[in-house]
Amino acid sequence: MKQTRGRKRRYIHGFDGLRTIGVIGVILYHLRPELFRGGYLGVPIFMVVSGYLITDGLLIEFDRNHRIDFKSFFIRRFKRLYPGLITVLFGTAAYITLFSQNLLHNLHMMVLTNLLYVYNWWQILNGQSYFARYANGESPFTHLWTLSIEGQYYLIWPFLVLALLLLVKSRHQIANIVLILAAASGAWMAILYMMTIAHVQPAAFDPSRSLLRY
C-alpha cells in the first residue's frame, strides 16, 4: 500500500533556550520589578514559540493528509490544558473558601471565565489589570489571562490556517498575508496605547488585554 509521506516533526533545540530566557525574565520581573521592568516579556516569548509549533504541526498534517483533523487537534489541546487548569482552579478556590475569604468576591466568575478561556475579557470588562492589585487583594488567578489567550488562539488559528491553505495556493503569499495581519494587529495595539496615554480610552492598556499576540 502506498503511503503519503510528509515532513517529519522536527525538534528545534534553540526553543529550549528561548523558553529558559522567558522563564528567567518572568521570575526576575516578579522578584524585582523595579530592576527588571521588561521581564514580563518572557510571556510573549512563550506565546510566539507556542504559535510557531502549533502552526508547524498544522502544516505538516495538511501536507501529509491534505486535511486537518480538528477533532483530534482539540482533543489533544483539551488533554494538555484542562487537567492542570482544573486542578489549579478548584484547588485555589477551595483554599480561598476555607482560609482567604477576603478573596471570595467574584470567585465563581473567575473560575467560570477561566474554564471558558475568556478570563482576559472578563478582566477588561471589570477594569482589572495584570499590573494592578485589586481592592480585595491581589487575585490568585491574575496570571491565567495568558491561558485564555492561548485557548482563543487554539480555537481560531487552525480554521484560519486551513482557510488560507485552501484559498491561497502559494505558501509565500500565505506568509505575506499573515505578516500583514500581524503588522495590522501591532499597529492597532499601538493606537490603543496612544489613546490610553491621551486619556481618550478609559481602560488602561495592558498586555493581558490582548486577544492574539502572535
TrEMBL record:
GO biological process, one term: lipopolysaccharide biosynthetic process
Keywords, alphabetical: Acyltransferase, Membrane, Transferase, Transmembrane, Transmembrane helix
Domain Acyltransferase: 13-185
Top-rank taxon: Bacteria
InterPro entries membership: Acyl_transf_3_dom, Acyltransferase_3
Transmembrane segments: 12-32, 38-60, 81-100, 151-168, 175-200
Gene Ontology cellular-component terms listed: membrane
Acyltransferase listed as a keyword: yes
GO MF entries: acyltransferase activity, transferring groups other than amino-acyl groups
PANTHER family: ACETYLTRANSFERASE, ACYL_TRANSF_3 DOMAIN-CONTAINING PROTEIN
Protein name per the record: Acyltransferase
